[in-house]
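Notebook B, p. 112. Complex prediction, attempt 2.
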Amino acid sequence: MATTTAYQVPANLSPTAIANTSSLLRIVALALISAAAIASRLFAVINFESIIHEFDPWFNYRATKVLASEGFYAFWNWFDPTAWYPLGRVVGGTIYPGLMATSGVIFYALKAINLPVDIRNICVLLAPGFSALTAWATYMFTKEMKDESAGLLAAAFIGIVPGYISRSVAGSYDNEAIAIFLLMFTFYAWIKALKTGSAFFGTVAALFYFYMVAAWGGYAFITNMIPLHALALILMGRYSGRLYVGYSSWYAVGTLASMQVPFVGFQPVRTSEHMAALGVFGLLQIIAFAELVRSHVSSKQFRALLFASVIGLGLLGTAGIVGMTYKGWIAPWTGRFYSLWDTGYAKKYIPIIASVSEHQPTAWPSFFMDLQFLIFLFPAGVIMCFRQLRDEHVFVIIYAIVASYFAGVMVRLMLTLTPVVCVAAAIAFSTLLDTYLNPEQPEEETPSAAVPSTAAPSETSSAKKGKKAAPAPATLAELVSNATGPESTKRKTGIFGLDTRLLVILNALGMLVFFVWHCTWVTSSAYSSPSVVLASANPDGSQHIIDDFREAYYWLRQNTPEDAVVMSWWDYGYQIAGMADRPTLVDNNTWNNTHIATVGKAMSSTEEVAYPILRKHDVDYVLIIFGGLIGYSGDDINKFLWMVRIAQGVWPDEIQEPNYFTRTGEYKIDDQASQTMKDSLMYKMSYYRFAELFGGQQAVDRVRGQQVPKTGPTLDYLDEAFTSENWIVRIFQVKKEDLLGRDLKSANSFDQGKKKKRSKPSSRRRAIL
Amino acid sequence: MLGPWRSSVSFFFLAIAPFVSAGHSFENTAIVRTVELGGTVVHVTTTYAVKALEDGSNIYTIALGQKEHEATSALTAKIKGQMAPLEVEKLGAQDGDFQLYDIRLPGYLKAGGTTNLVVETVQTHVTYPYPEEASQKDGQSLKYEADLLVLSPYDTAVQRTKIRSPFPQIHSYTEPNVEFTEDAPVTKSGATLTYGPYKNVFPSANKHFVAEKQQRIYVHYSYDHPVLEIVKLERAAEISHWGANLNIQDNIHLRNAGPRLKGHFSRLEHQSQAFFQRSAPHMLPGLTLHLPAGIRDVYFYDLIGNVSTSQLRTAPSVPKGSQNTQFSVLELKPRYPLMGGWNYSFTLGWDSPLADSAGWDQDLGKWIVGVPVMTVIPGTVIDEEELKIILPEGATEVEFFAPFPALNDELSTAVTYLDTTGRPAVTLRYKNLTDTHAGIVYVAYKVPFSAHLKKPLAVATALTGLFVLAFVWKRVDTRIQK
């Protein structure tokens, strides 16, 4: 006995006791993981406050408020006249309502039990809450891949991994907040449907797929992943009735359900993105039919004929889809899709997409930053999947390959990679722990000693040990499998002694500890800033809040007419609508390129050119972000070239990017700046009276580290209306036309007492004399 | 039970009273009116030296001009040197020219008996910025308009009005022509204007006099503090016996009622003024509020979130019954400096121990809780207030005692935080409140012990129900096929 186990294990434990204990431990572990997942996302609330972050969440929040205050149907039919002024926006038909509906349901449910919670707090805490559900869904998914212990590890990983936290901190009220849970749960249900051949789980997958479609544009990932998996299985010769039932029930119910979302509508049958799913569905029907016929017919020739006809039908279907695409009945791939294959595509053809930082290709350090040691375990886990290569392992392998590619192309798609990394890493890590925690030692050269009696205690021990480490490695499934037949398979390979075990386990635990430390640090320092509020430190180390955005937005809200139209670059559209509650020209829903280009043109033209544009769009206020005083680098001057580029795309004759550079091709704002740059509205508004602040000393722009000309720009057609405390937000009012019919420039110089320059001084009087 | 002070019966009697009692039974030997100018609030003190002409006279009638009456938000009458306020009854409308009030003197005066009556009134919205617009560099000046003569239904031997400005600079004032004096109708010394003395003014509380002799005067003076106005104050006070907590939350809509900002706000100008410590007088950088002692969890936010620019120094709770001299001081800054004509709305709230403001009345067998009507911002008028006091769930026999009558009151039900039947709530509405109205509304109610158990029972029942359902669902086999 002592020779075959590495360490002492308790005997005489009944299997029920073991089963109950491990079940309880799993529940406790999952509860703790959920708590950790929620708690680690609350840095933003604790360091700052319960506030909506970033840009897009402000729109979601605003829409949710409409839903909460006016009910679902008003929300569904909501036409927002204040966005995209003067066009307006049909909100109900142009959004994924899943997120708002979720918050709305929670809000009404709490209200129904007389527990009134502010809708803002529901929105803020929705993402952390759903992250706990994600951890659970990942547990369920990984459990199907390996076992419960791997599931717990995966749940722990996804609970705190920065790659997912970056999109789900408290206040990050965006579609991704609930989408990752839906993604994982749909995949779990799909795997379950595939494994059991159950139409029930196929329908569950379809329903969660519908929820996902209603919640996030990234549903297309599921739409293509599941068919890809199914196709791979077919090509591997693994067609089965289970696959047929699972896929068909998912596709039929899921597609019909997804078409109920107004924003999706008939896309599932009319766009190329969805054709893979339809094609595989058709293929499955053909194969099923062929299988049916084959089971009834035995003739070899007939079989060959059947084979040919199946291939022929398949080809015909593909040709049909291609033909319909050519005919235009099926919409071809969209530009966003192309930019996934050609990273330079967006920059050439759709500058708006390229101008968003999260659409840039991923830099490799961010893989480590977001996933830390999981990124090393990830390939190992994928290879582990090849060992058994059951149907569900194929899914993980395909998911891993596809998501790795996408994550490399676009920063924001790191989010879809993260779950599979957690799953694969958990499989690898749990295999490692299984191997090294297993108390059984391989047999030495001596011919077989009596092993049978040791079998039962050894497994109990492994279960027992599992309790100590947070991830319980040996659980029921393993226990049972080991208990049934260890005698026949005497282990030839394995680990001898305790020292090797301790060395590896301690090392592995050390990695886990560093992982937790890293996640906490990244979350607190990088991903928990609301970006609406900036933090800096006072000289004594206490936190100082720079609250310029809200200062200016609130000023707009309280002290301007309710219908005053505010023009700003589209980044701030949602925030202005949400916080200042004023109509905006463009916002983060970048659906109208021309409108955005119009704003870009107004910003990059001279005052004389911009003024008619502003007046035609009823603009009352122009809002810009200027970081030159305190060194806030995300300001409009730094984004200015994108405005120029986007405007140039529509008016190539009037706006040319090279004009905004110095002769040596540098982007400068000091004395050497080009005249076009200095005359542009954006430059003038940014530096209006900025140099005077320095009281005669050399004014320095702290973002660009350049010296600002001493005589600053003057404005004739606009007037400074408000500037925030640190000058980050500057608001200018557009002057109305002069009452006397003069152009505003001469009116202004008249007011300042300047004499009009006359080319021919008093010639007329002389003529009279 | 609502509004025990509102006795319409006595009102009816008093409405006809003046014609019974207010014959010419008095004569004013002197009337001195002192006006303390301010921002939106002006304090007026009028001293009547009264001589009775008949025996047993105890109802003295005073008169306020119509505009004066409309602007008056508080009126108290006292005998000079005494603290106890006298009973004042407003009489019926007098054709829109003036308003009469009957003051019941503490004793009966014999013929020839004299007394000194002090009437203090607070006027709101009697000043307005002039010029109406001021740029960031300009000063701030206000105009005060008032009636020249103090009206009275009795003969007046001599009367004068003193108008005092808080700042020395008086730009201009009316120099009226008055028939009751031979000397200069008005004299100015420093920051004080004196209209009068005007001698032998015959009974003036009648239509003829108001039409013929009364004049309007104005004073244009410099005022170097921001002129503030709270357009709307919504105060909700929630009493919780379970939490031993009184939560008070104010939704405040603050407005700078000074001259409108001419042109636009220049941050550069503002910052250089702050640097040289010469800020514009009409600019409000922040407020200092005196909140009750012993408060905790103070919050200050507006429609878009927390406002981080505030400082709070709390004072510990004061034992009940002892003199309260300490306050928690809150210095709050709006998000932006409040220039003339600008608005800022925000929410301010705090928790305080219920024991600090509640007590058990043995005789009534009731709880009595005191809720302050408002937090005083000196010199600021509250145009409209809605005070809502939310009592514990299941409170019965609700009575309340306000320091001064409300415009209207109602009893409603507020449902919150796992309530089953809801909580009774008392809502009082006021208009034009000033710092003189800083009183306490007392609410008395009974809470039976069973009411306290409502919430835990409801929650326990709901949870038990859930568990039973789960239990049943887990135990009952619903499969069709075995």
